[in-house]
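HOLO CASE FILE
Compound: s-citryldethia Coenzyme A
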Amino acid sequence: MADTLTITDNRTGQKYELPIQEGTIRTTDLKQIKAGPGDTGLMTYDPAFLNTAACRSAITFIDGDKGILEYRGYPIEQLAEHCNYLEVAYLILFGELPTEAQLNTWDDAITQHTLLHENVKKLMEGFQYDAHPMGIFISTVGALSTLYRDAKQVFDQEARNRQCVRLIAKVASIAGYSYRHSIGRNYVYPDNDLSFTGNFLNMLFKMTELKYRPNPVLERALDILFILHADHEQNCSTTAMRVIGSSHVDPYSAIAGAAAALWGPLHGGANEAVLRMLEGIGSKNNVPAFIARVKAGDGRLMGFGHRIYKSYDPRATIIKRIADEVFEVTGRNPLLDIALELERIALQDEYFVTRKLYPNVDFYSGLIYQAMGFPKDFFPVLFAIPRTAGWFAHWEELLRDSEQKIARPRQIYLGPKRREFLPRDKRT
Ligand code: SDX
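Model generated. Tokens follow.
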């Protein structure tokens, strides 16, 4: 049997033979299918890209039915068990796990770039004290494009490497500063003796002690959460990164756009929405009534469902295990009982089962963040920090892909047919 698709256009009786490659047909092969002269040829119509491959990528593999997630071929469970975040960021960005020497060089490079230009601090001072930290994050990352003029040289590999190190390092510092700004405390400068995640906690929580010492259990738990959030193939924000990057704008501006997409409650803003949902439910006894409202179409069970995972999100399984370790240190988050009851009921309820709705990465992560002392509106920022590695890796892959051009989809036009201009005095 040939790897082709035979199409008969019943409007003309014409047959077409289209090649099938890597499980796809090229949409542009459909343009030859015309009903008659003047016809521009068939397009496909796929709102929200439910069944459209927009690129070929070697970074992350997901099997939604089997609940499989692999970065560059390595199962997420093994990476979460054995690696630290910077090691995984290296894998995602450069395609291989680093040797000890490569990891040390990489770690040093990131450490050397954690400082922010003093002007960036002045910029952040301009935000209201209670400004949402994700809004501060998006604005400040975008503003970095005004600092690093070499970022516009998107086809200069050395320039790209410099922006990569700057971004991986500085998004954590920007996040730290935005948090300190929101609670009216002084900015904490990076401590180069600490790990990437330990230093992040330092920039957030250091008080008057001479040297901040992160709790090793919390430091490791957050590091694993960063690993789990580092990439997820063509999700909404990564697609935004690729679309914006396709115009060859600098990576800071593209990442600001990607972070804006991540902020939506249907995407990375879901972790904050889950906590607000749990607090709104208030107690286990109110769970059945809440579930009934969701089934009646009144709101969604935030943290449940996924476009790709039609079984348990493998990241949620790992996060649930980490939660127990964190609560050993911080004390159990009382909202966990409500979350567990929601999951128990939803996993046996026909409404959720038939729609294949399972807990996703956002369902339990917020409980950990809250127990670690993060405010709810900081949760999307905690998602954006590690996802910067994935966004940058996809941006690099896009620029190296000779098939890619500026993103410019087509449309089905529904507007008025051509009509003549109507002078103002003739309009009704
Ligand atoms: C992330 O893409 C990624 O990889 C994202 C991510 C990543 O790492 O980048 O994994 C991170 O964004 C995780 C998702 C976080 N979002 C939420 O938890 C918000 C709640 N979930 C949903 O809104 C929803 O499940 C989505 C957005 C995640 C997926 O939506 P789809 O694939 O577009 O599905 P849909 O909206 O078409 O829903 C299909 C059906 C509908 O019912 P019917 O119209 O068929 O009757 O399922 C229902 C929906 O109403 N449904 C839900 C639901 N999610 C879907 N009903 C109740 N609660 C939910 N959470």
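CASE NOTES: Residues 232, 235, 266-268, 270, 294, 300-308, 355, 357, 360-362 surround s-citryldethia Coenzyme A (CB under 6 Å). The chain has two domains: 74-268+384-400, 272-371.
CLOSED: yes
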